[in-house]
């Protein structure tokens, strides 16, 4: 897979996250942010490993998100809290899977429409 669509997907993901946070308050931007966090991890995995299968990329992205969430049960250094968070929240685990599933579906659809030679 070409890296340019992946880079554009990562930029779009960050833009969507900032837009959602800027437009709404309450649980909508929080849980959308959780899902988009996992989508961003997914894009970074695909950027690093362009030939990775979508299901593997989704599993890695969800797994990394879950590891970060469970790490919040212990002390996160102050400098890492903006990226890794600081408070464990069980519903976040579901939204990470939602993000991974959406990224998997989009990636699978892209590959079907743009087969590599």
Description:
This protein is mainly alpha-helical. Helix content is 76%, strand content 0%. It is built from five helices and no strands. The chain starts with a helix and ends with a helix. The model has no long low-confidence stretch (mean pLDDT 91).
Helix content: over 70%
- Which series of helices and strands comes N to C? HHHHH
- Straight-line distance between termini: 10 Å
Which structural class matches the secondary elements?
mainly alpha
Report the radius of gyration as a whole number of Å: 15 Å
For this entry, give a set of tags:
117 residues; mainly alpha
Brief summary:
Helix content is 76%, strand content 0%. The protein is mainly alpha-helical. It starts with a helix and ends with a helix.
């Amino acid at each position: 897979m070409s890296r340019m669509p992946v880079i554009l997907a990562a930029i779009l993901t960050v833009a969507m996250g900032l837009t959602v946070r800027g437009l709404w308050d309450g649980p909508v931007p929080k849980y959308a942010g959780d899902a988009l966090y996992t989508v961003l991890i997914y894009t970074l995995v695909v950027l690093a490993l362009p030939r990775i299968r979508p299901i593997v990329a989704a599993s890695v992205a969800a797994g990394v998100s879950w590891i970060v969430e469970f790490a919040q049960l212990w002390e996160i250094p102050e400098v890492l809290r903006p990226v890794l968070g600081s408070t464990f929240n069980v519903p976040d685990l579901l939204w990470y899977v939602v993000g991974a599933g959406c990224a998997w579906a989009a990636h699978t659809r892209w590959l079907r429409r743009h087969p590599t030679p």
